[in-house]
Design a protein that fits this description.
76 residues; mainly alpha; globular
C-alpha cells in the first residue's frame, strides 16, 4: 500500500474527514510524503486528532508539530 493511500484510508477509518477524501487532502498527504515526513508520524497524528474530533486543518498543524518533534528527537 502506498503512503498516500495508507494515510487516506486511516483518515476515512478514523472519521477525520468524510468517507471520500478530497483533492485537498490528497495534495496535503503527497506534500508530507515529498517532505519526507515518516508515515508513522502522520498516522500517529491522525489517531491523535481523531480522538479530539479535529479537522483536516488541525491535522495539518499537528503533523507539522509532530514532525518537528521527531526531527529534534532524531538529532539528539
Amino acid at each position: 500500500m502506498s503512503y498516500i493511500s495508507e494515510v487516506a484510508d486511516r483518515l476515512v477509518a478514523r472519521s477525520v474527514c468524510s468517507s471520500i477524501v478530497g483533492p485537498e487532502a490528497y495534495t496535503m498527504i503527497a506534500d508530507w510524503e515529498k517532505k519526507g515526513i515518516p508515515l508513522a508520524v502522520v498516522l500517529r497524528s491522525v489517531e491523535d486528532i481523531s480522538e479530539r474530533d479535529g479537522t483536516i486543518e488541525d491535522l495539518r498543524e499537528l503533523v507539522g508539530r509532530n514532525f518537528r518533534g521527531w526531527l529534534q528527537n532524531s538529532e539528539t
